Every structure is written in structure tokens, then in C-alpha cells.
Amino acid sequence: MVQRGGDRQGLFMRVACVNQDGGIQPDRKKGAAVHLREMRRSFAALGAEVVAIDRSDSAEIHQLLNEAWQEAPLDMVYERYALGAKAGIEFATDRNIPFVLEVNSPLIDEEERWRGPVKEEVRSLERLIFLNAAIIVAVSSEVSRYVLDQGADPERVSIFPNGVDNDRFCPRKESDPLRAELVPEGRFVLGFHGRLRGWHGFERLAEASARMLAEGLPIHLLLVGDGEFEEALDNVDIEHVTRIPWVDHDQIPRYVACFDALPLTYQPDVPCYFSPLKLAEAMACGVVPVVPDVGDLTKVVEDGRNGLVFAGDDLEAFIKAIRHLVQDGEAHRRLAEGAVETAASMSWKRIASYILDRTRPQG
């Protein structure tokens, strides 16, 4: 698949965007697929010609890259890192073009945690790839630390949390009737969107919601996506919950813009290498994030400027933060404006622009 560019920044650049992870395809629902699509869209929007390759077989990838090169030389290979994948860097090395690697998690650590020991040859290959990549884009400080521990050159490693399409994710228009259709008037909406996972700590949000409703706070949970929410919601008045099944990512901005706050209730002991897509998306919509002090969340959310931060193990502190937003409309408005301002500097295009600027052929 070839995407042709529209802006002039990437003019005359041909970028091979390679994904060798068979579990991640551009048309799938998961967040990783969103990341894949948005980076390709952004390269194209900035004027690059994108050659998209999604295969798990190395021989096929080599063949497709060579076919693309025969049409016209490529200027860069941009790859989402997959364990044991080497076709992209082999091709880039052979053709003497930059190889840019996007690293979203410490894959060897995950492999050993969930599947068992990793062979030394896989470790050696990972070190070789990290050493030879022209640029490594890590989604968090913890992922950056992992990459550096394997010997990567610090000058080649940059940290970019997951971005957002600011053209699609933006504050709700007053003329949009969706919120009135989903939530009774006068309620403060706590939102969740995506696929529910164990590490989200949703049971903590449910417990806090039950307590806040018991004290009379007019909160309402708007839950958009997949997951087994019901068991955790046993003690929450169902009249204060709206459940929406999975919505395509192109349609999700309207729903997110109906939120008043985005409560993240991750447990303090969860691995801290993640960069939640939902954070930048919600902030771009003027939704106030309320986050625990774990991982890189506090590098994005500054307490009192564009959101609220609470001690991750203190549920009462979380409830206090939500109570403050419900009861102080002016504070909520100010924090929402700060969230939008922050998200404006977190676009996918900003990441793509950074990469294009540093890999553009000279002369």
C-alpha cells in the first residue's frame, strides 16, 4: 500500500513503514494499530510517500522492500519494533539509508514474564538493532532506559509519548447533541474509552464512584469500548452508568468530547513503561485528566495546570480530586483549557516531523 503526501515537508522522501508483528495490523481495533495508522498518515500528510509493509515473514519483507526500491529509491525505513525481526534493518544497512525504530515496550522483559526464557540469539539481535538504528523513538522514559541498557547511543534515543490527531480530537461543539443523548443533564461525566485491561484498575474507579454517589456527587460513568465492566459496577447505581460498545476510532472523538474528566486509576505497582493513547486524546478534547503519580503520566499532566495528580495508592486522594472538579466549575474550565493547550504539542505530526527532519537526504 502506498500513501502519497500532501504537504511539502517530506517532499521527495519515500518512507518504508514496516510492521513485522503479525498480531498488529492497521485495520485492527487495538491501540497499537492506531499508532501504526497515525504515524503513516502523518508521514503522508507531511509530504512523504509511504510504502506500508505489514508482514511477519522476513523473506516477504525483503521482497517487498526490493520491489519498492526498484520503483524508486527509498530514503528511510521506519519500523515498529517486533522481537526477532531483522529484515528492516538488514535492508536499510544494505542500501545505506537510515533505519528508524519505534519501541513501545521492553519486549524481552514481556516475553519472559508471560511466555518464558528468551534465547541468547534473540537478545544479541536486539542489542545489534538498538546499536545500529539511526534513531530510536521510545514511548516513555522506562522504555528509553530499557533501550539504553542494551547499549543504544543516548544521542540517538528520543522519547515521544503516544500522540493525537488534533484535527479530529477537539472540544465538543455546542451544537453536537450526542452528550444529551448519552447522559442526563447536570451530571459530571467520568469517561473511559478503549479496551478494558486488568492493569487499568477499573475496580478502583468503580469503588470510588460508588462512594462519591453515596455522598451525593452528581457523577456519571460513560464507558465506551470493550470489557467486562459489569462485575466491578455491582455497587454503582446503574442509572449513573452509560455503556457504549466498541466504536471505530474514527468515530471516537465525539464520544470522548462528552467526558468532563478522564480518571486513570492504575495500580501503583503496575509496570510503568506504558503511554496511554487515551490520555492525549482526552486532553485534546478539553477533558481534564486525573492521574496517579506513576510512570511518565506526571511528565504530561502537571497538577493544577492541565489536570490533577494523586498519590497512586490513595483512593481518597483520587475522590478528593474528582470532588474538587465537580464542585469548582472555574477550576475545571481552567484545567480543561490547559489540557487542550498541552495536547496541541502532542500531535502525531510532531513526531513524524522530527523523524523526517533528521533523516532527510542532504544535498
What do you see in this structure?
- The chain is an alpha/beta fold and 363 residues long.
- It has 2 domains: 2-163 and 347-359, 3-Layer(aba) Sandwich (Rossmann fold); 178-343, Rossmann fold.
- The protein has 14 helices and 13 strands.
- It has helices at residues 31-45, 58-71, 87-95, 107-114, 120-132, 141-149, 178-182, 202-214, 252-256, 277-284, 297-300, 315-327, 329-343, 348-359; strands at 2-3, 14-19, 49-54, 76-80, 99-103, 135-138, 157-159, 188-195, 219-226, 241-244, 261-263, 288-292, 308-310.
- The strands form 3 sheets. The chain has a 7-stranded mixed beta sheet, sandwiched between helices. Strands 8-9-10 form a 3-stranded parallel beta sheet.
- Strand 4 (76-80), helix 3 and strand 5 (99-103) form a beta-alpha-beta unit.
- Helix 10 (277-284) packs across helix 13 (329-343).
- It is elongated, with a radius of gyration of 22 Å.
- The relative contact order is 0.13.
- The model has no long low-confidence stretch (mean pLDDT 92).
